[in-house]
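Think of the structure tokens as a kind of shorthand, similar to the way a musician reads notation: each symbol stands for something richer, in this case the local conformation of the backbone. In the example below we present two proteins back to back. Begin with the first one, reading the sequence and then the tokens, and try to describe in your own words what changes along the chain.
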Amino acid sequence: MIARLLMVLSLLCPAARAATPSSAPAPSVLVTTIAVKSGAIPRSVTVYGTIGAGPGATDTLTLAYAGIVTRVDVVPGQAVHQGEALAVIGTAPAAQAAYAQAEAAVRAAAQTLAHTRALVAAHLATNIQLAQAQQAETNAIAARNALRLDGASHPTATLTAPYDGVIAAVAAAPGAALQPGAPLITLLRAHALVATVGLDPSQAHQVHPGDHVAITPFATPAGRALRGRVMAIGAMVNPASGLVDATISMPATGYLVGESVTAEIDIGTARGVIVPRDAALPDGKRFQLWQIAAGHAHPVTVQIIARTGSSAVVTGKIDPALPIVVSGNYQLKPGIAVRVTH
């Protein structure tokens, strides 16, 4: 009986051993890799703003004498050329009367001078009296000429553009009575406009006066960026926008005043290891990429110092002999086995 039992057990044990499953294979991740490649890519800061008047770009045209606006020939936003008529101003009655009085004063001074000369010739007046008469005539002529230069000698005067520009504002309408020095029209110099853009405070220290800028007005077709340079950078945060204002020079033509623009500021080049943007993954406040050694994944902490549309430049303790994972990296854990596909 015992012998039969031992024989049955001996027959069953190999079958039991055959039915025991083998150990499960270790998990692995399918990844794509590239070799480590060092290089450089351009660094730039992209900002947004508007085109407007730069330092000294505006002039306010005024009258030197009292007048009445007869006609206004321009509207805000209109481009004008040097010598083009902007408005017609009628001389105020008081100014015309002042000029008539000045003309009468010149005639009277001339008559007095002639009479004094005759008296001196007859020894009836002194040279001092002659000098006084000559001075009186000089003063009368100067006062009349000043009024004439101011336009008081004409019933109307045409105000013209002193240079090529854009009308920024019209302060008076036809029929308005203007006192001397009152503003009439504000004119922007066409060649002195700038783009004012806003820099994130964290980027402001990277931008410097003189940096090259590619400026693209929103209305300009793609690929036709204008070229400019950074003129100045603000030393404070604009309380209205929360950004640091920067001023960029503009070419003489090719845009509209008040137009919105995108500006790409060239801030030099970044050197390091060039990888696809998705190769470096966020890891808290840092970034991490993966390298493969002996068929297993190893994380490397890196810093991204520049990005383009598809690439990034990173620095860190990257082994130049080990490949870098560029896809499949979202599934990796330290030490996990990988299968590399090409």
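Once you have a description of the first chain, move to the second and do the same.
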Amino acid sequence: MFKSNLSYQPEQTVIQITNDMTICQSDYPLDWYQTEFIPYAEEYMALPDRKLTTIIDWMRPYIQKAQNHFGDELLLLAHYYMGGEIVQLIQEFGGVIGDSYQLALMAARHPEKKVIVESAVHFMAESISILANPDQNVYITNPKSGCTMEMFAKDFMVEPAIEQLNARYGHDNILPVCYMNTSGRVKALTGAQGGAVCTSSNVKQIFQWALSQNKKILFIPDRHMGENVAQWLNIKDLAYWPKGTEGARYRLDEQSPKTLKQFDKAQLILFASECTVHTTYQAEQCQYWREKNYHVICHPECTNLVMNASDSHGSTAFIWDQVLNDKAQTQHYAVATENHMVNYLKQQ
């Protein structure tokens, strides 16, 4: 639908592995592992320490055995938000890093890769798998990994919103738009009603398309990104559907006349889930760093107050490109996004 020549390509890290660099993640109990993996987990837990050099030495024979077996058909992936040492470990063995959209396209754009192993949250692996070819297999290193924004926007929480809005306004008058960082089930609910999936890079463009359909837009989630887009596109009338299990139990027809009037008038209805990481940032923090002549850049999952207090805003890949290539020509950046990525950028 939308064509653009703009592409942010992740660069290889320049982090040097040092003897004191350790893995940031804690050990999991053995019963968290699939049965087939328990022997390897026991080996890992028996290692003398969690230094990256120790872990790489332990992993190398296994990775090399897999690389020898699968050859060029093997692809290792990691998200920018993983700890810098995890990213370095992936790249040590020839893997690729990227944001959620870049990762989602990896299988589709590389049909020669048949075995794809992803280190990130579960719904990103799911997106890769959805877009993969039938002969490609996608695996995730930790199927329990997730984020609060997606956890409070599960399909059983979102479906009642779509059903009740359809009942009140008509199926043809509700257009869902869901964020890339949602489950495959939520994406399916969105697509079944003629909606679209957006990324933090193209959310404004997707909303412009949605507005042209002259329907009420249900954005699933993030409430803060939705508020930011509303400002960019001058959308004044908003309503909010509660997040989580409250959203699953919410009954629109039982709400007060004032709330119903707000929904009736709303051009944009926001499913009110949010990212707890990005919500922690405050406008005062942005002002503090701007006073020190730092270029403040935030992710659009931050609150509207933070976005308005920042110098620029954009997707994970945009932030990576802006900082690493010093696009603001300041050499000083204060970044409001996930701390692992910020630490990783500091080491570049």
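Compare your description with these statements about the second chain. The two ends are 35 Å apart (CA to CA).
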